[in-house]
Amino acid sequence: MTTSRVPPSLDGTPDDATHPRLEQKNAQLRHAIDAHARVDQAIGVLIAIHRLAQAAGLEVLREVSQHTNTKLQTVVETVIAWALGQPLPEPVGRQPDAAVQRRSHQQDARDAEAG
Question: Which DSSP symbol is given to 5?
Answer without folding.
Answer: S
